[in-house]
Structure formats: structure tokens, C-alpha cells
Amino acid sequence: MTQNPPFRTIEWVGDIDGFVRLIDQTLLPTTVQYRDCRTVEEVWEAIRSLRVRGAPAIGVAAAMGVVVGMQKNVPLGGFASRLQEVCDYLRTSRPTAVNLFWALERMQAHLQPHPEGVKPERLRKLLLEESLRIETEDRAMCRAIGLAGKDLIGEGQGVLTHCNAGGLATADYGTALAVMFAAAESGKRFHVFADETRPLLQGARLTAWELHERGIDVTLICDNMAAQVMKEGRVQLVIVGADRIAANGDTANKIGTYGVALLARAHGIPFYVAAPSSTFDLSLSSGDQIPIENRDGREITHAFGRQTAPEGVKVYNPAFDVTPAELIAGIITEKGIIRPVTNESIRSKWGESGA
Ligand code: MRU
Fold this sequence. Notes:
By secondary structure, the protein is α/β, with parallel strands linked by helices. Helices cover about 35% and strands about 15% of the residues.
């Protein structure tokens, strides 16, 4: 297996007047093309249209989006209001992944309080530094998650994952896939089943591509095959990522994750979530309070350039679901595994101050 990903998910190019460069994930796996975002509107569009996606990567993109949003000759007097405006705008790009809100809060908090009379140039530099710190920290958290979880994978086992929680979904290396990369790096041999993940096929287009490119043994299945594959005894472990984890451990992740967790429970297979501290939202007592994104029905009826349903048919397209904590064997974090998943174990992992 190769050590480093064959792509760069997102990066800042240049100095404070630079721009955001991201791999356009809507074109994968057939085209590897980078997209440069030089305005906050372009960053917003990239997040909304899933050119950059996956909770931690969205957080990094939003933080860098703030920097480009503050570039256009913002006078000192209008700096604070423009910063608020840019952050509020980016907050409307997608609702479920808490990393977006977490990163924007961090960017704002970084300048508060700032001494009176500091030049906008200096403030913009501070914002750029904070966005780069968020990116660097995310890389480190992914590596730590990999190390924390790698021993869960036994020699010769089958591991199933849903959606994409890999390097493409983070600054680098991933969360659920980090566990697999770390296990492979330690010499373990195992087999991954990747759910294709309807409707936008993040599993087929992104996870299968990433694992295949990195030399990890992966088999793609349609979502509705998971039960049969489990029944045949081919899966010993499930690991998925997360978009937001409430204080009691209820976990929002890509639509279909809840079904996979139920199937895992029915077949006696441990179901793990891998996520960094930035994905925990301890202000929510349970998963019922997590906002679930509803996306355009055309993603189901007209995906990838072909109409596959009658014109005008009603469609419901929630992009995420919530898996109750009781179905989760453990949450793999950068600070070790939270197990069992309860209010108390989550609080004690992140301390009273919260994640
Ligand atoms: O709609 P997406 O592609 O942004 O959904 C992504 C997921 O659900 C991932 O599993 C989650 O963000 C974890 S990424 C480490």
C-alpha cells in the first residue's frame, strides 16, 4: 500500500492574497481536476455542490473561505461586520456537518478580542494562520484516529464502510479510512466492502477510488447488498465517519448509515464510528436535534446525466440520518476509543468544557 494519498484534498495557495485550491470531487473517479476558489461565493458553491465534502474537509474549506472573503479592501472600521457577514454566509452552505460551524466559530473567536487599531492586513494574516492551523490539526487528528483504531481490524477480516470518510473528506488520510490505512501500514491484511452510497455514490466514486489507488483490497457493493454480504459471513467489522455527534453519542452520517448499523446489530457485527473532536456537538443532548440536510430531488431522478424516474414524481432526499448511540460499539477519536458510547464516557473524554 502507498503511504501518501495520490491527491491533495484542499490547500491554500500563496500568501494572504492567495486562494483555495481543492480537488473537484464531483468529477472523480474519472477526472482528477483541481479548482481554484478566489471568492467566498466560489467557496460557498464548492461546499454546497459537494466539490469539497466530508465534515472535516468542509470545515477546512470554510475557514479558508473566510480568508478569501476578507480580501477585498475591507477598511478597519468595517472589518468586524464584514467578518460576521462572511461567516454567516458560509454557515448557509450546508447544515448538518458541525465542523463547518465549529471552524467558523474558531475563525471569529481568533480575532476576539483584538486590540483596537490593528491594521486589516495584520488581521487577515491572523485569519490565514488560523485557517492553516485548522488544516494542520485536522491532519494530525486523522493520523491519531488511525493509530487509535487500527487494532480493531483483525488479520483477514472483512470491514464494511459507507459513504466516504477518507482523505478526500478531511485535510488528509481520513477518519474511518484512516483506521484502515493505519492497519494496512502495520502489515495487516484485510478486505474492505464499500457501499456505493446512493444517491451521489460517494462510496463508489470516492471510497473505492481512494482505497484502490492506495492498494487496499476493496470490493464495491450496492447499498442493498450489505445484508446479504453480512449474512454470508464476509463482514466482521463496520467503520463509518460522522457529520455530527450529539452529547449522548447519537451520530449523524450519510443517509443509509442507520440502516447499516441495524444490519450490523442483527448480524452481531460491531459497528464503530471514527471522528475527530471537531465533529462532536455537545450543545445538543440527542440526535433528534441534529439538522438534517434535504437536497434537490433531481439528485435521485436525474443523477449523473440520465433521467431514471418519471418526470414530476415526488421525491424525498434527506442527505443524512442519525444512528442511535445504542447501536454504536465505540467512537474512535484522536484521543482513543470512547466505549461504551454514553453521555458520561463522552463527557469524560472531552472534559466538562466540551469538545
Ligand atoms: O454529503 P457528504 O459527502 O459531505 O457526506 C459525507 C459523510 O457523510 C461522511 O461520512 C462524513 O462527513 C465523515 S467524513 C470524515
